[in-house]
Amino acid sequence: MAQENNGGVKRELKTRHLSMIALGGSIGTGLFVASGSAISTAGPGGALVAYIGIGLMVYFLMTSLGEMATYIPVSGSFATYAGRFVDPALGFAMGWNYWFNWAITLAVDVSTTGIVMHFWLPHVPGWIFSAFFLAVIFVINALSVRTFGETEYWLSIIKVVTVIVFLIVGFLTIFGIMGGNGPAIGLKNFSIGKAPFVGGIPSILSVFVVAGFSFQGTELIGITAGESETPETSIPKAIKQVFWRILLFYILAIFVIAAILPYTSKDLLGSSASDVAISPFTLVFQRVGLASAASVINAVILTSVISAANSGMYASTRMLWAMSKQHIAPKAFGRVNSHGVPIPALLLTTVVGLFTFMTGIWGPRIYMFLVSASGLTGFIAWLGIAISHYRFRKAFIAQGHSLGELKYHAKLFPFGPILAMVLGVLVIVGQDLNAVKTLDWQALGISYMSVPLFIILYGYYKIRHKTHVIPLEKVDLSKIRDD
């Protein structure tokens, strides 16, 4: 029977839900499509270095979040942790920043469903599909957290199976078992032209940004902590499983694509979320004679987009609910229905999702604006998680606690959070290095608009409430769930 905390949300998410939510949240168009442009930009070696680097960063972030979430499992976790372990102003800024990120991402993803469906039904207006999928996602989230968990589980299964099939086909092609009667491809594409590293450090840094976007969503495991049946055991287990799956899926997939398709391929240069015909996955499947490859991969990408929108609806709703319980959002958003679902928070998030229909009125410019608006907010959240964990562990020791009290220990402290902080700053600064060099103010404004938004939120709360960084001895380490 589902348990219920004193805030009203129910603990119905199981370990398999948590694993697939975090895994599915990070396997999407970033892997199915954008991976091609990463290889064309930095070459096979550069792309692998970038994805391995971000993979390690994400692992340390997950273990940091896991240590805090098993000790104090709350919905909207990292905003709560930032407010309790660092500065209330940081918690306020992170919470609203993250809600804004996922609410806008919901609008972007729902808009993208119309673009994807255009592949099959080019004469039907995209807004019709967007309205349909937004309604479906609203219903899924309105029913119960278990419904959300089950939906994400099965949507993620589809993506995982696709990647596994792709890897099998890819390696058979590399070794010459599939893909025609010619000689095995082997690793010759790793040494053609300027490969394996193309463009040096600047190119690798630019791919770090692409890789970072691909991995975003893994932090959802922290959001779900407050609704997990057994967070002390399920979260560590989910983190361990997700790390190996992400590392294997992403690194092996990049390796296969780079081995089969040379980085000089014009198809890779043209990869974009709206052109499934030149997805690296499509090209590899077509190489082995799967005539319907584009249609199959388009269906998988549609699944990915719906999954991302579903996760976005859940994450933003729970973050807004959690902020209400902390009194940094209106009290009304803290209300839940009989199934433990915060309906007012869900409704506001859905209203933001309706921005998707502006793309039908003002065209693709509003779509790109929405994408840019949500741009760096995920990376800012990652940076906040690393800072919060560093302060949590320092305060834990400063107040006389023993590490033996922790159900789960983050790996390689303090190296892990420090590395995550350094890489987080690098990714944020490297969002658009060309605009920084040339001082292109319009490009800078679009690429970095999330940064001033965060600073404004932080400054507003700090000035109004006159907050300060909390001394380690006064950090609140009480083991409570949501208020």
TrEMBL record:
Question: Which cellular component terms (GO) are annotated to the entry?
Answer: membrane
According to its UniProt record, where is this protein located?
Membrane
In terms of PROSITE patterns, this protein maps to:
AMINO_ACID_PERMEASE_1
Q: Look up and give the membrane topology term.
A: Multi-pass membrane protein
Q: Could you tell me which Gene3D superfamilies the record lists for this protein?
A: Amino acid/polyamine transporter I
* Molecular function terms, GO-annotated: amino acid transmembrane transporter activity
Q: Which UniProt keywords apply?
A: Amino-acid transport, Membrane, Transmembrane, Transmembrane helix, Transport
Listed InterPro entries = AA-permease/SLC12A_dom, Amino_acid_permease_CS, APC_YAT
Major subcellular site: membrane
PANTHER family with a match to the protein in the record = AMINO ACID PERMEASE, GENERAL AMINO-ACID PERMEASE GAP1
The protein, known as: Gamma-aminobutyrate permease
From what organism does this protein derive?
A: Loigolactobacillus backii
